[in-house]
Amino acid sequence: MPHSHLIKPVLNDTYPEIDYGKGVYLYDKEGTQYFDACSGAVTANIGHGMEEIVQAIATQANRVSFVYRSQFSNEPAEELANHLAKETDFPWCFFVNSGSEAVETAIKIAIQHWQEKGYASKTKVLSRWLSYHGITLGALSASGHPARRERFHSMIGDWPVVEPPYCYQCPFEKEFPKCNLQCARQLETMIKRMGPANIAAFIAEPIIGAAGGAINPPEGYYQKIKEICDKYDILFIADEVMTGCGRTGKFLAIDHWGVKPDIVALGKGLSAGYSPIAATMISERVMQPIIDGSNIVMGGHTYSANPLSSSAALSVLKLIQSEHWIEKVEEKSIYLQHYLKKLKNEFSFIDDIRGKGFLLGIEFKNNWNVLKAEVDASFTSYVVKEAQAGGVLLYPAGAGLDGKSGSAIIIAPPITTTKREIEELYRRLRSIFSIISSKVALQ
Ligand code: PMP
Question: Which UniProt keywords are given for this protein, alphabetically ordered (predicted)?
């Protein structure tokens, strides 16, 4: 008889049970302290155990936790939608429970938009390799992540068609700026081949997260993408599930490039992990034909816009705003990057440091080998395991262009992390990397 029936990511592995969290730290039942250097799954954006949020959730739970959205609206959900509209300049908002659902909803709204306008054949959604948009079948269809797709081919849609903007290992083996943004221009070629009359939208993560490890595009990339989308009447969906809600130093990461998408998916940082909620934000231009047409959005879940999660997200966003945490991200990011670069100089298995704000990535030289016989893992998962054993949590990322050979991690501590805590993180990573360095060798 197994000890527990809770399905874990790796079934026969053991996972420490967490007891509580405070700020950047988590504590397990054995009393071990972990520095949460990746905010879980880049989610606990304002740290753990924030008293104001806990109070707001308790107050709402005392009033009402759940109402069904087809019977009632509720104050926290209405207020949250208003707050998001002001913050993002997207007037329409649909609440769901996970990033995957926010992406699914974005795709469905894009398709419905064209149907309501009388273009029923515009249904395909183009996407990039080296991407992750979610685990549900629609979001997985758009994901350029072979390892996550391979079991479900019969249930998912077309493969992605566009190469990622990955200068570190350019898929076209070119160099910026001589490449003339071939990765962006490839979208136009694909649109022409497939026919714009069949394409509803193009979806991309402004900074490539789970599949790439915090990869920034080259300058001008998103401007070119938007120009191409507009030219062929294709909606641009920004998947900001990981990058949004202030993580990169702006509320939306795409604002770093001054480009306005048509639809945005938010998740993770929206409630910073205090309760499951995600959102699809939609422009007036995209919504208008739907309002003028069937006047309903074909989507929604039982828990959509529930008052409890809405109050959690609302209190998180209000706190972020009143404490001006987003405005402080850039300066602290420079500080954090300074220490990551120091690590790169000290440890030769580190090859690339990148990302924006508090979404930073480290790519390892991919010809490093783990010497310890008992470790049967990729270098990334080996590093993540050793780091956890040493009291630092890191997020494994980087599928690689072939979906298998990538070797990167994401460093994304809560945006509330202080400079002193950044220094502590550096010291801890330094000693973990020293241990790793003594156990690995170049192949
Ligand atoms: N999109 C992006 C960019 C993500 O990073 C993720 C989660 N890693 C998702 C979608 C899916 O979100 P969820 O796990 O909440 O379904």
Answer: Aminotransferase, Pyridoxal phosphate, Transferase
pLDDT digits (tens, 9 = 90+) for 162-174: 999 999 999 999 9
Counting Cα atoms < 13 Å in the Cβ hemisphere of 33 gives: 7
Are residues 178 and 227 part of one domain? Answer: yes
Whether residue 421 contacts residue 234, with contact meaning beta carbons closer than 8 Å, is answered with no
pTM above 0.95, yes or no: yes
Give, as one character, the DSSP assignment of residue 253.
Answer: G
At 293, which CATH number?
Answer: 3.40.640.10
Domain that holds residue 178: 52-323
State whether 143 and 107 are in the same domain: yes
Going from the Cα of 164 to the center of ligand 1, the distance in angstroms, rounded, reads 18
400 and 351 in a common domain? yes
Number of domains in the chain: 2
If asked whether residues 285 and 354 sit together in one domain, one would say: no
Q: What is the pLDDT of residues 128-150, one digit of tens each?
A: 999 999 999 999 999 998 888 98
Our mutation pick for probing the ligand 1 site, out of 42, 128, 264, 268, counting the most ligand atoms within 8 A of Cβ, is 268
pLDDT band at 376 (very low <50, low <70, confident <90, very high): low
Q: Using alpha carbons only, how large is the chain's radius of gyration in Å?
A: 22
Give yes or no: residues 142 and 86 share one domain: yes
Helices (H) and strands (E) in the chain, counts: 13, 16
Strand 235-239 to 199-204 pairing: parallel
Of 275, 296, 323, the residue at which a domain comes to its end is 323
Please tell me the distance from the alpha carbon of residue 136 to that of residue 101, in angstroms, as a whole number.
Answer: 7
- Which CATH number is 426's domain given? 3.90.1150.10
Residue nearest atom 1 in ligand 1 by C-alpha distance: 133
CA 315 to chain centre: 21
The CA 104 to ligand 1 mean position distance, Å, reads 11
Q: Single out the residue in 291, 323, 355 at which a domain terminates.
A: 323
User: HSE on the CB side for 350, CA within 13 Å?
Assistant: 23
For every residue of 200-228, DSSP letters joined together read EEEEE-SSB-TTTSSBPPPTTHHHHHHHH
Ligand 1 center to 219 CA (angstroms):
25
Nearest-angstrom CA–CA distance, 296 and 214: 36
CA 371 to centroid of ligand 1, rounded, Å:
33
Tell which atom from ligand 1 comes closest to the C-alpha of 100: 16
Q: What number is the ipTM of this complex?
A: 0.99
Closest approach atom of ligand 1 to CA 103: 10
